[in-house]
Amino acid sequence: MSPAVRRGVALTALAGLAAALLVACLGLPDFGHPRGPYATAVIPLALDARHVTSVVAAVTFDIRGIDTLGEELILFSAAVGATVLLRSQRGEDDTRAAVERQRALAERTPAPVRRVGAALAGPVLVLGVYVVAHGQLTPGGGFQGGVVLASAFLLVYAAGHVVRLQRVRPVALVEAGEALGAGAYALVAVGGLVFAGAALENFLPYGTTGQLLSGGTIPVLNVAVGVEVCGAVALILSELLDQALLRHGAP
Amino acid sequence: MNVVPYAVAVWLLAVGVYGVVTSRHLVHLVLCLAVAQASTYVLLLAIGYRTPGRAPIFFDIPPGTPVVDPVVQALTLTDVVVEATVTAVLLALAVQAHRRFGTADPDRLGELRG
Known about the structure:
Chain A is mainly alpha-helical. Chain A has helices at about 5-25, 40-50, 55-65, 65-90, 90-105, 110-135, 140-160, 165-170, 170-195, 215-250.
């Protein structure tokens, strides 16, 4: 099919699809007035029954906790899959060559980039830990904080020369973190089964609403997800960066 | 009735899929898929929006304040995570395809295999 014909077919089909979807949208609840009964029903559940102030965290890690377990395993297997794909055609020598190139490139990293990277890495790390730890209180949580934590690793990567790369981005540690996070979530799920009679049922004291250690298992799950997401994102990005270095990074 | 937020979602889906269909580069294709997927975020958040609503975080607002629907926000969070993982795997596949066929043009992948 020539590009012009394909474009014509695509435009016709998408115009029809868009028209049908727009008609369907007329049947949706009026914007600004959600009709779902759960929109209001989950709020007292989160505040009074689970002692957390972030209702989104209560939905994610308690009411939909099993879904989040699945989601986390999706992330885990995707990171493993992407890593296997990227490494499959690359021997040990290639990996060593990539490390050598990293070193060589790090030597040539411009000084301002190094300084900014080194200066930001610490604060970003603290911010990531803060976002993960306060997941049950304020916006944020394991997923968001995990990505912030992974970006701290990447800042070190960008800073290059300041800290020796091999020591900062040990792939084995990142891999272990990813697996530990996924395993910890599953363990908490099993813990609910053992101590409270149902998977992911809370089995820890709730604490006082609004305090750092409140919400029972929710902060524990947040930390598990934070470690897992940080490991997965750092692993995927470092594999893609290695790939780029192998292809284009010849000093 | 205000349909603009829903229309934005439909528009994002349409331009994303159009980009996927007419793409000439695998990385461009993956990014177009991400645009198409962004329509689901807009749709979910639009369904749950309440006027006038605050964020569903009761750390600094009293219980009983009208807030937007927290359930769709949690669903959007799941959606974002899944989208990120799909993008990662597809980018890894794009790298593999480029290595094997020496091109990142989806049309030419088929020619070379045939």
